[in-house]
Amino acid sequence: MEQLKTIGRELAMGSQGVWGSSKEFLELVKTIGEAKSKAEEERIVLAEIESLKRRIQEPDVPRKKMKEYIMRLVYVEMLGHDASFGYIHAVKMTHDDNLLLKRSGYLAVTLFLNEDHDLIILIINTIQKDLKSDNYLVCCAALTAVCRLINEETIPAVLPQIVELLNHQKELVRKKAVMALHRFFQRSPSTVSHLFPAFQERLCDRDPSVMSAVLCALYDMILVNVKPFKHLVASLVSILKQAVEHRLPKSYDYHRTPAPFVQIKLLKILALLGTGDKAASENMFNVLGDILKRSDSTSNIGNAILYECVRTLTSIYTNPRLLQNAAEITAKFLKSDSHNLKYMGIDALGRLIKITPECAENHQLAVIDCLEDPDDTLKRKTLDLLYKMTKANNVEVIVERMVEYIRNISDNHYKTEISSRVIELAERYAPSNQWFIQTMNQVFEIAGDLVPQKVAHDLMRLIAEGAGEEDEDADSHLRSSAVQAYLQILKEPKLPSILLQVISWVLGEYGIADGSHSAEFIIGKLCDIVATRPGDDKLKGYVVSAITKICAFEKAAGQTVDLIPECVSFIEELYASHSTDLQQRVYEFHAVLKLDRDTLASILPMDASCEDIEVDKDLSFLNSFVESALANGSRPYLSDNERRGMGAMTTLASNNDAGTSSLLRFQPYEKPSIPEPAAALVTASHYSQDAIDQHDIYSSAITVSTSSKAPESSSNDGTRLKLEGVQKKWGRPTYTPEAQVPKNPINISDSVKVSSSAAGKEASSRNSSAPPYTERKQPPQEISAEKKKLAASLFGSKAGDTKAKPAAKLQQNGTSKKAPAKPTSPPPPAPAPPPADLLDLSDSLPQTPSVDPVDQLADLISVDSSAATSTTSLVEQVFDAGKVATKGPSPQASLQKDAVSRQVGVTPSGGTNPDLFKDLFG
Amino acid sequence: MAIRFVLLVNKQGQTRLAQYYEQLTIDERRALEGEIVRKCLARTENQCSFVEHRNYKVVYRRYASLFFLIGVDSEENELAILEFIHCVVETMDRYFGNVCELDIMYHLEKAHFILEEMVMNGCIVETNKSNILGPIQLMDKSF
């Protein structure tokens, strides 16, 4: 046995020439392959790094050995370790004369280095040299490297040579040159913008592979700017036609489908060119119809083309007949048993409903099935679809589904994404404020700190503004229910900071407003909030402000406030806080407590967060003071400008400006260019004559005057809402006066109106047909009935309709159809042009080359491809049979493989990882 | 850019081939590979072959013990990519003759060359097997 192994090893050494790698390398690969755990793999790789570091430095490493080392470095990096110590050797290997070594060198460099790496500069020269090589394979190796290594700054170094290679006699070189230019376009469009005509010329290349490379480039260019390429529509349509009609060489087929990847690329390009362009789109209808007819809907690749076709049809100018076909294809996808096709179907449906919203109704149950499928990908895709088709009448169901979904996932990325969608939908379509607040609370609870701060502000604003200023009862009801809800939520552990902020603000503002909770109780709750998150300064700020407000309300109402011990210690602690903001807040709190009742009532009035703070710019309240001062012989006040004009005062005034400018700039009345109104006149004789004093007095007067209104704003500065000139997102738009105001906020017509005015566009249709909104129905017994109901609530009928009979559904669908009539509704369908016209058009294309390049080429390639097809069919037969047949086209290679495997001591039966040998198709 | 990476990973989660068409650091790659593979391995046969991960959509297909994963952007046709994976495997199969995991491990550079011919700048440029293998076979002869 031992002997056998030795012989095997010797044989393995002997086979080195064929394999190009040593026994040692095979051993390494084998041990990595058989590593049972990540830790074991790690150990192997670390040992490998040590040995490579040593050996790669040795002088006179044979070139082939060096190639092996470099491939081992590739392994090291692939398995997640740093191999930068060997990069330079990879760079050196690109100089090698041997093509395989050179290309391996280039490969390693492209895998190791990104385009901004310092070593790149060492390769530019080699690339330049290789681009000029007589051996076209060397050229190709260099061009492949160009696609990975050249950055914006080095483009000019190789650009001229690559442009030359566009006309190389070998199609392989032309193809790679096109791709190199494509890469330059991706990096820096301006460097190749002058080459658009050259690209178009290559589009007519006699080799289809060059043509299809140009398509890759064209797609990206058209994506940036459609205009310069509009004239290509006819040529592209003709190429697509040839591909569809199987006029490209057979070797481009994939499972008997003619050049599917070329077809798909062309369809993508046509979708871009036909968007909003009737004339261009009409050119395409014929060939698109052809594809729909010809594509094989039983194979994956056929369906891929059909799906792409649906995408194209939904982005170009609409053709009703073809859209009908697209809808049928989508239906087929959705009805399929394959999850892949269902997924594509959901995506296609999402595109179709943008144009024909009513088509969603035909697929209700299929969509519900996908929504409830255990497959997460499918579920999420369906949520995407629902997001797209959300309207005022189904928002509750859809949002409920989304909330349920985010509740059950842990991936923060999707939590953020979907919760922002929930917020968006809720803001846009909320049927009532109550519902909106509930939904927001759920989102905060689940997604917590992933929710942007702005959403919290909007929520607080909604609670503050309520349904509208006209209906105080409704508002206070809304607020007390919010307070109730929040007190309930507070019982739960581990709430996110942002929700606690909202809660603190609401409790501070409205906690004692309806009289059902005592100030002590609310303050106690607020102190509890802080206790749950000891390190959260922002939250502390909210809580201090809330406590301040509650104390002020109580005192203003004539009650005495006895602070509970927790609160006292909390406040005491903050006097020494590191945060100056917190310190300021507690000092303000302290100051506020000392004020008398009337002052408190005016500086912190109850429920005034929405009131505009009016600043008396004229300081009229000082008038009597000024008048008495004037009567006592003071000098009248001179405005800044007037003072500047007086020579004697110039220096004084400017000093004064310098000294107090920062102070002055904060005063709202101070507009430098406009002189002060004459009403504000002060004589200085009362005070020492100089103007600085005068200013001090002045500013302190202002401080007093504003402080009677302003402290409230400073007391909750983070939460203060800017209300001036802001249109409400939900609720009644501030700018549009409502004729009628319902008394109850959850009253039916009100909720409809709220949502409808929010939805804006749908206002008229909804107001006329709005049925009563009732509470969500109970979960039904049967699953199928539940699904039906869900379908009904999603697709147009009302949630309150528990019966959801088909007839009723139809009727409701009829009404809901009106609702989605968007402003962006598609233009009136163009009549389908007679096919004959288009045929003519495609046959008499002026832009296309006079001789069909592809046909020409078909002859050139036919020899090649016939050889190829024989093997293809062999492979296909093997696949079709679904079992492993004889060893493939090169039995010799397979034998050698087996031999070496034995030699290195790994056999399928004996090895620890027999899978390594399993043929991929096995 | 459509295709953002191509990964070959076995069912133990070990990377067998990795090609990225955008710049990621080694640590980012490592994290990405770990997360994606975990997601794909957790899926069953009759779930769909697409997984969303961060901003990628990952299309995957399993052959024996080996997973082929292609990360694409949101504009890509998933079904076409699924078939493209099969096209890659067929091409490798033609080159190696009944390709298996170990072939790819022993001939990592060849597997990369095949991929380089088929995907450039994140685009599918070639699916014609004779066009793909022609230059590689020529190179083998010259060695």
UniProtKB/TrEMBL annotation, chain A:
Highest taxon above the source species: Eukaryota
Keywords in alphabetical order: Membrane, Protein transport, Transport
A Gene Ontology BP annotation from the UniProt entry: intracellular protein transport
Basic and acidic residues composition bias: residue spans: 774-789
GO-annotated cellular components: AP-4 adaptor complex; endomembrane system
GO molecular function: cargo adaptor activity
Ribonucleoprotein found in the keyword field: no
Signal sequence, renumbered to the chain: none
Segments of skewed composition (Pro residues): 823-836
SUPFAM superfamilies per UniProt: ARM repeat (SSF48371)
Residue ranges constituting the Clathrin/coatomer adaptor adaptin-like N-terminal domain according to the UniProt record: 52-595
Subcellular location: Endomembrane system
Pfam families listed in its UniProt record: Adaptin_N
Main location: membrane
Renumbered residue ranges of the record's region Disordered: 704-852, 887-914
Biased composition (Low complexity): 837-850
Ranges of biased composition (kind: Polar residues): 704-718, 746-758
Protein's recorded name: Clathrin/coatomer adaptor adaptin-like N-terminal domain-containing protein
Automatic annotation (TrEMBL), chain B:
Similarity annotation: Belongs to the adaptor complexes small subunit family.
Record PANTHER family: ADAPTOR COMPLEXES SMALL SUBUNIT FAMILY
Occurrences of domain AP complex mu/sigma subunit (ranges): 3-141
Keyword field: Membrane, Protein transport, Transport
Name of the protein in its database record: AP complex subunit sigma
Subcellular locations according to the entry: Endomembrane system
Pfam families attached to this UniProt entry: Clat_adaptor_s
Family matches, as InterPro entries: AP_complex_ssu, AP_mu_sigma_su, Longin-like_dom_sf
One record GO biological process: vesicle-mediated transport
A GO cellular component annotation in the UniProt record: endomembrane system
Keyword Membrane appears in the UniProt entry: yes
